[in-house]
Design brief:
Blueprint lengths: L3 E5 L6 H12 L2 E4 H14 L7 H10 L2 E4 L8 E4 L2 E2 L7 H11 L2 H14 L5 E5 L2 H5 L5 E6 L2 H13 L7 H17 L12 E4 L5 H16 L1
Parallel strand pairs: 1-6, 1-7, 2-6, 7-8
Antiparallel strand pairs: 3-4, 4-5
Helix pairs in contact: 1-9, 2-4, 3-5, 4-8, 7-8
Bound molecules: 2'-deoxycytidine-5'-monophosphate.
């Protein structure tokens, strides 16, 4: 089987971890499209480009040479830009703060969607993001919309960040997740939506293993 599987959902819903593990279980490739928008954002910061100059940001996205090295086991795949491994830079606070603003630029989205579609050829792929089922792979074999309450999603982000930054304030994290939700769902170009034909999974009270099992069973049932 070489299916294409689209997974969308808001920040902190657990979709990336679930997608990565599901890909391992199915022996599929996994593409984290959020990492692509993050890579553009990091390069924008590095090149000191003003986000108000949208054409310049889109131009940078277009000419940027971005490569993924496949992940081994449960590890994340590496992102190499112009020969530099920037994987560890993708979740720094400056990128977290700016990525939604970069991702709402039409020119950036057009370039990313083109690259993502090119990578989907031959199937055997799980792609996650915000517009995968609605825009990038509208004909995907399976579409999932993974979500959780704002409180729970903020709690997950907090648990991740507190390890590195012990003075992190939970309420601040919650505000920042809510701010990103607002930008991602209200932007003009391909906002985050639940595609009509997607299966919704609320992960608020589920463990990651339970989420992966649910996805896996739906795919198995749908293809048997
Ligand atoms: O999933 P993430 O938190 O790494 O996503 C980072 C940002 O990129 C987020 O603000 C939404 C945006 N994004 C998007 O607009 N479209 C995608 N397909 C993936 C991510």
């Amino acid at each position: 089987m070489s299916l294409t599987i689209a997974i969308d959902g808001p920040a902190g819903s657990g979709k990336s971890t679930a997608a990565r593990r599901l890909a391992r279980r199915l022996n599929y490739r996994y593409l984290d499209t959020g990492a692509m928008y993050r890579a553009v954002t990091y390069e924008v910061i590095r090149s000191d480009i003003d986000l108000n100059y949208e054409e310049e940001v889109a131009h940078l996205a277009e000419k940027m040479e971005m490569n993924f090295t496949p992940a081994e086991g449960d590890k994340k795949s590496r992102i190499i830009v112009e020969g530099r491994d920037i994987t560890d830079k993708l979740r720094i606070p400056e990128v977290n703060d700016k990525v939604s603003r970069v991702a709402r630029i039409k020119g950036v989205r057009e370039v990313m969607v083109k690259k993502q579609r090119a990578m989907s050829a031959n199937g055997g792929l799980i792609m996650d993001g915000r517009d995968i089922g609605s825009q990038v792979l509208p004909n995907a074999d399976f579409k999932f919309y993974i979500t959780a309450t704002l409180e729970e999603r903020a709690r997950r982000r907090y648990k991740e960040i507190i390890k590195k930054k012990p003075d992190t304030d939970f309420e601040e994290i919650k505000k920042s997740v809510a701010r990103r939700d607002k930008i991602d769902t209200e932007r003009c170009y391909s906002p985050l939506i639940k595609p009509e034909d997607a299966v919704e999974i609320d992960t608020t009270d589920l463990s990651i293993n339970e989420v992966v099992d649910k996805l896996y069973n739906i795919i198995k049932e749908g293809t048997s």
